[in-house]
Amino acid sequence: MSDTRILTSGCGITFSNQKHKTWPNILHLAGCTVIDVGGPAVSNQWIINKTFLGLQQHSDVKTAIVQLTGLKKLDVEVDSERINVLVNPDPLRNFVIDKNLQVKSGDQIENAGTWPSSASTHHESKKHWNKWLFSPALEKEDLYCKLMLLNSYCQQHHIGLHVYQGYDIQWSEQQFLNLQKIIKNINSSWYSEYLISSYYQQHDKQNQNSVPCVGYQIELAEIVGKELSCDVGKKLKRIKSAYVKT
Question: Under CATH, domain 5-71+135-245 is a member of which superfamily?
Answer without folding.
Answer: SGNH hydrolase (3.40.50.1110)
